[in-house]
Amino acid sequence: MSDHTTDPATETFIAHRNLLFTVAYEMLGSAADAEDVLQETWLQWVKADQGQVRAQRAFLVRITTRQALNRLRTVKRRREAYVGSWLPEPLLTAPDVAEDVELAESVSMALMLVLETLSPTERAVFVLREVFDIGYDEIAEAVGKRPAAVRQIAHRARQHVDARRPRRVVSSNEGRAVLESFQRAVETGDPQALLEVLAPEVVLMSDGGGIKHAALRPVTGADRVARRFAGGIGKVEGTLTTEPTVVNGNPALLVRLDGEIDGVMAIRVEDARITGLYYVRNPEKLSHLTSATPLTLR
C-alpha cells in the first residue's frame, strides 16, 4: 500500500480499514487471512474509477465481503484436515472493544466458533447485518443475492446463532473478576480452586495445530478439565507464568514458558463461572499477541 496518505483513495481506505479488517476477520477467523483480504481489497480499490464510486464505504465493504467469501470456501476445506480442534486466531484488542458489549461478543472465541457452523453466505450475511447493521440492499450487492433472499438468510442465520450463543453477555468487570480467580487457581494448580471457578458443564478446547501438544478433542466437565490443568502444570519443564490480557474483546490469560509466549487462554463466562476455555498454542496463530499495539476493530 502507498505511503502517500494525502492521496484521497489512500485516506479513504485507511479511514475504513478497521471496519474492513473486522468484517474479514469475523468471516474467516484468521487475522492472517483477513490481512490478505485487505490487500486484495486495496488492489481493487486503487484500480476503481473513484469518480464513479458514490458510496465509498459500501463499495469497500462489498469488495471485502466478496474476497472473504472466496477465501472462506478455500479455508473451510483446509480446516477439514486440521490436526485436532481448530480455534480462531486470537487478537490482542484495545480496551474500548471490551466496553462495546455487542462488538466484544461478536469477536469472542465462543461466537466465532458458532459462526464456523454457518455456510459462507450465512456467515457473511450475519456479520454484515447483526454486527455492523448494514442494510439488506447493500448486503445483497455484496453477496450476490436478492434483498428478499438476504432477509431469509439473515433470519435463518440469526436463529442458528441465537440457539448456540451464551444465554447472557457478562460485563467486562464480571469477566475480569472470574479471570482473576481462574488465574490464581491455574498458578497454584489447586484442583479445588479450579472446580470453584469452573461451571459443571465447562468445555475445554485446545489448539496446537499439530505443532504443540494439545487435546485432539474437547474436554468436557469440571472434574476432567480441573484434572487436566492440575496434571499438566505439574509436568511443565520450566517456569510457567500467566498474565491477564484482553483477547477478542474478552478476558484472557497470556501464558509464558520461561518468558516466551506459549499460548493464550480465552474464557467464556456465564453466571460467574467459566463455561468455555479456549487454549490456543499453535505458534502460527500467536503472532498478533506479540504486537505492542492492541487492535481497535471499528
Describe this structure in words.
The chain contains 12 helices and 6 strands. By secondary structure, it is an alpha+beta fold. Strands 2-1-6-5-4-3 form a 6-stranded mixed β-sheet. It has helices at 8-28, 31-47, 56-80, 95-99, 101-106, 109-115, 120-131, 136-143, 147-162, 172-188, 191-197, 222-235; strands spanning 198-207, 219-220, 240-247, 250-257, 260-270, 273-280. A hairpin with a 2-residue loop joins strand 5 and strand 6 (273-280). 52% of the residues lie in helices and 16% in strands. The radius of gyration is 20 Å and the shape is globular.
Descriptive keywords:
298 residues; alpha+beta; 6 strands; globular
Please give the structural blueprint.
Blueprint (H helix, E strand, L loop, with lengths): L7 H21 L2 H17 L8 H25 L14 H5 L1 H6 L2 H7 L4 H12 L4 H8 L3 H16 L9 H17 L2 H7 E10 L11 E2 L1 H14 L4 E8 L2 E8 L2 E11 L2 E8 L18
Strand content: 15-25%
Which outline best applies?
globular
Helix content: 40-55%
| Coarse structural class | alpha+beta
Distance between the termini: 20 Å
Rg, Cα atoms, Å: 20 Å
**What is the chain-wise order of helices and strands?**
HHHHHHHHHHHEEHEEEE
Number of strands: 6
- Overall pLDDT level: 89
- Strand order, largest beta sheet: 2-1-6-5-4-3
Which residues sit in consecutive blocks of at least 5 with pLDDT less than 50? none
Give the biggest beta sheet: 6 strands, mixed
How many DSSP H or I helices? 12
In short, what is this structure?
This protein is α+β, with helices and mostly antiparallel strands and 298 residues long. Helices cover 52% and strands 16% of the residues. It is built from 12 helices and 6 strands.
